[in-house]
Amino acid sequence: MQVNTYLYFSGQCEAAFRFYEQCFGGKIEAMLNHGDSPGAEQVPAAWHKAIQHARLNLGGQVLMGSDIPPEYYQKPAGFQVSLDIADAAQAERIFNALAENGSVRMPLQKTFWAARFGMVNDRFDIPWMINCGTFT
After folding, report:
1. Residues 14, 52 within the same domain
2. Domain co-membership, 85 together with 35
3. Residue 99's domain spans which residues?
4. Among residues of the chain, what percentage have pLDDT more than 90?
5. What is the H or E stretch that residue 96 is in?
6. Band of pLDDT at residue 131, cut at 50, 70 and 90
7. Which residues of 9-35 are buried (b: 16+ CB within 10 A; e: fewer)?
8. pLDDT (tens digit, 9 = 90+) per residue, 11-49?
9. Number of domains in the chain
């Protein structure tokens, strides 16, 4: 069994996944929009470019997402997407990229359990925790 994260967006899924692909160094495996789906005629024309399903491969881990209609969208709450990163320089690079045009909830810093830990909401309002190295 593998647990994967699935994120919802209100029309920003493609931009988010293109950003995550560059930020995390992954590879987009799927980016399907509503207009190209078999049910396209049942979707309003304004929604045809919205993403029905995106899949980003992160070296064996998967991040997935889609756009959902505004009447169903809710701002992300009650969870964090946690990234465990072995290299401090990479953790800082990723944290800083996520923080650009986002909001830092806890600066990336040394803690009693990790060489670096921080929390940030990115420009798409997705909440992230960056954890780098643990002390034993």
Report:
1. yes
2. no
3. 81-134
4. 81
5. helix 88-99
6. very high
7. bbbbbbebbebbbebbebeeeebebbe
8. 999 999 999 999 999 999 999 999 888 888 888 888 899
9. 2
